[in-house]
Structures are given as C-alpha cells and as structure tokens.
User: Fold this.
Amino acid sequence: MREILRNRDFSLLWASGAFDNTGRWMDTVVMGLLVLQQTDSPFQVALLFVVRWFPMFIFSVFSGMIADRVNRWRVILGTRCGSVTVTAVVLCLVVFDVIRPWHLFLASMALGWIYVLEFPSRRSMIYEIVGNSHIVSAMSLETFALTIGRIVGPLTAGFLIELSGFTAPYIFLLVGYALALGSFSLIKTRLPAPSSGPSSMRQNFIDGLTYAFNHRVIRGVLAITLIMNALAFSVESLFPVVAKDHLNVGAGLTGVLISALSIGSFIAAGAIAWFGVIKFHGRVFCSGVVMQFASLLLFALSPWYPLSFVLMLAVGFGSAGFGTMQSTIILMTASPEKRGSSLGVLGLCIGVAAFGGLMVGAVANLMGAQVAVIISASLGLLLLVPAILYSHLVWHPIAQPDASQSSDSTMSCASAHPNQLP
Assistant:
C-alpha cells in the first residue's frame, strides 16, 4: 500500500476518484430527497435510480471498446468536465427556485452517461499505472475512494439539507467535482490507446461479448454481478424511503444510516488492502455477496434504528469484498487487449440495476419500500446458490496474467487449467 501510494500518478488518480465518488453518492441522496419532497412518491425516487443506471446497460460494452481504442486519459478528463457542467446547471436551477423533478431526471441520466464512459477507462488506467503485482492493493484503495464518497457524501448531504435546504449541498457538489477535475488533470501517465486495429465496432462488440462469456472465470463474475445489481444494489434507492416511513427518522439520521454502509466497506477494504496477497480471490468475492444479501434481508426486517445501523455496517462489509474483487478478477485474468472490453461487458451486467430499480420501485409503490427490500434480498439469496456452486470462482485460485494472457496455442490446452479459456 505504501509503495503504490508513493506513486504520484496513482495518488492523483486515487484522490480524483475520492472527490468524484463523494460527489456521485452525495448527488444521489440529494436528488432522491429533493424528488421525494416534491412528489412524495417512492416510485419516482426509484425511477431516478433507473435513469442513472440505464446508460450503463445500453452503452457499457461500447465504452469498454472506447477504452481499448482511445487515449484513456482524455476520456476520463472529458467525463470530469461533464460532471462539473451538469452540477453547475442544477445549482443554478436550485438557486433560482425553478428546479422540477424532470430537471433532476435529466441530470441523473446525464451523470449516468458520464459514469458509464469513465468506468472501464479508469479501471484499465489503474492497472496500467500499478501493474499486476499491486493490483489487489490498488483496487482495495479504489474501494476506499468509493467508500470515502459513500460515507462523506450521504452524511454531508443529510446535514446540509437539514441546516440550509438544497442550495448548500449543490455548492459542495460543484466544489467536489472541480477538485476531481483538477487532481486528474495533473496526472502525467498518458499512454496511447492499447488497440487501434481496423476492425469494425460491430466486430469488436461481438468479439468482446464472446471473449467475456467464454472465459470461465469472467463468466462467473458476470453471472453474480447480474444478480447483485438486479436485486441488491437496485434497492439502495429505497433506503431514504425505508428510513423515513419505517424507521421514522429525518434527513440527518438518514444520511448517518446510509453512511454506515460505507463505514463497513471502509473497514473491510482496509483489511483486504492490508493483507494484499490473496490466493482465492473468488472466495472473498462470493463471501461478500452472500453477506450483503443476508444483511439486507435482516435490515428490512429490523424495527429499530440502532440495529438497522449495525446491519448497514454488515452490508458494507459484504459490499467491500464484492466490489474489490469484481474488477480485480477481470483485470487479472483478461488479456491486455481485452481488458477494456471485458470491463465493458461487466458494465452491461451492472446496468441491469436500472431494470431492477424499476421493478423494485413498482413493488415499493404497491406494497411499500420495506416489502420491496425483503423480496429482493430473499430472491437474491435463492439465485446465488446455483450461481456460486457452478462457478469456478470458489473452487480454484485465480490464474495469474501470464496464464490468462497466453497465446492461442496455450489457450488450446486450457483443459489443463480451470481458469483459462475453455
């Protein structure tokens, strides 16, 4: 950890990610509470989540191909500028008191497009800067950056709204996104595009999907990611509603409750980064998934705020194991020219959260947010049983890059190693 933090470019990339994630999780809470205040509709709060994640579903594979064919530094710089612009526009609407729910839906969708474009380029750039030997610690620190945002963002949002309404949070957001842009612009690592072949986008699309789904290890990650994002992460949009309607707390304690998830992730990611060298990455990944679903189910059943807070910590523990290993496993096993495409397919699976959010929102509108979370968590636990049992993630250690990046002749002998292409 100390060694990679002494790497100037990684430290700047890490700081930029911390500022950006703080803004992303803060604007999610602010937008949700603002829509809830204006409409008093759990479905519209869930719809805000849907429009944020729908771009990930329809464009992530193409953003992965962009990461493999375009200078990644320029892609990420463009996304940072986009976040600043969108937030500045929303701030003006709030200041002049002309903000309406449809403005927030458009802003949420725009930030979703920005995130999907950044996702594969940023993670591929992390690998380029630190290399394979430090990728576990680097991705753990990446989870730290995400976790810091999930702690500071909702907590700050809740208290600023309690103290001064919605103007102060958007000023804070604009400053945070500007700091993310400034930090990233100082990075000197600007490697050229890793691939510039003449093949068409259509062929690249087909090749990327084929490669990811034929790779045993990556396929297992994708299957579990589908379950997680459709049934676990999609219910996060309902946390403010559960806090308000079931636990009977205000915006301040809602922010504290949501931040508990990130505190748990922070602690767990620190433990993963401390150990650094892990043999069975898949076991950490799958254990985190099971813990997150089980804790979500108990959270929905909890009638007391203190117990709900503790269960949110447990959700965070599971989220850290899942989140740290999700991209790490793909980066370690995918061949260099397919990393961006594989992460793009991963983004496609993450994007099903939009449809999960739509279903969860419909159930919440009919039966209440608490029931929606209970149904999602229970179904997720049931689907995880076959997904984990038939996955190569639990039973075998993850192959090192020299194995997964082998030539075609080596890949023809894949039956000798369970983690290579079949």
Observations:
- The chain is about 80% helix and 0% strand.
- The domain at 8-186+200-405 is CATH 1.20.1250.20 (Growth Hormone; Chain: A;).
